[in-house]
């Protein structure tokens, strides 16, 4: 198949590109800069210059593809409205391009706000609707495209997609521990985060491209929910600093308001039982705590 991937030079996207190429697909990757163009080429894919605001490039990439994997997202937290609007415009563009073709449109989703106090499942629907909502309500919009003869699939990624080179949440938590000389968690550290190794997440996307069913919601989750205290203790051991319970406002100040707020307050445990049954996906990668102990964030 010819597969068009947005976010192709990113942390998850570059692993997905590698997996798709291993699976025998021809991959075109969206690239917003000269550096991204080189990274996509070096990864073995064909670069297409453009970004999420360039709807002509998005449509061109989709028109030439048998499947679209949309992983890019603006992360401008100083202007979240613009980020949400760009996401909605992108998925609407893909919907128009793929309508009537039966082709697959796979988008990235998240696990926030799906369930309260229990692991989220694939049956939990996103509460976000409309272009002004988080992620532009993209998940619900895309799933409705089944009525326009598109094969929509949502892959909800664990908040921590880890591995050597990860620059996301855990890298930020680790940097704060190194900077302040303490690895903090809020309260009793019982808040839980799901996790998945980057390579396992990429394999799941590859399976979705090949065999994902229309309207499927898949969870890229290997570890259902690791208590934040255990994460903080693993970071502390790796960095040689103490682990300590901190007031939530202090934790947010040390880590940063966005990541610190999530780490302190947002419960993001999730099951992937239905995903494993549907596609035969079984995670193989090292667990998050083992990755931290092995120096992935050193």
Provide a descriptive summary of the structure in words.
With 298 residues, the chain is of the alpha/beta class. It has helices spanning 11-22, 34-42, 55-63, 80-98, 138-143, 169-180, 198-211, 228-239, 248-255, 257-265, 273-279, 288-293, and strands spanning 2-6, 26-31, 46-49, 67-70, 104-109, 151-157, 160-162, 183-186, 192-197, 216-220, 223-227, 243-246. Strands 3-2-1-4-5-6-10 form a seven-stranded parallel sheet, with helices on both faces. A three-stranded mixed sheet has the order 7-9-11. A two-stranded parallel sheet has the order 8-12. The N and C termini lie far apart (38 Å). It comes from Williamsia serinedens.
Tell me briefly what this model is.
This is Nucleoside-diphosphate-sugar epimerase. The chain is an alpha/beta fold and 298 residues long.
Helix amount, in percent?
40-55%
The CATH H-level homologous superfamily of the largest domain: NAD(P)-binding Rossmann-like Domain
Count of runs of 4 or more consecutive helical residues: 12
Widest sheet, order of strands:
3-2-1-4-5-6-10
CATH class value of the largest domain: Alpha Beta
CATH architecture verdict of the largest domain: 3-Layer(aba) Sandwich
Per DSSP E runs of 2 or more residues, the count of β-strands stands at 12
Q: Which runs of at least 5 residues are low in confidence (pLDDT < 50)?
A: none
CATH topology of the largest domain: Rossmann fold
Distance from first to last alpha carbon: 38 Å
Secondary-structure element sequence? EHEHEHEHEHEEHEEHEEHEHHHH
Overall morphology = globular
Portion of residues in beta strands equals 15-25%
What is the mean pLDDT?
Answer: 95
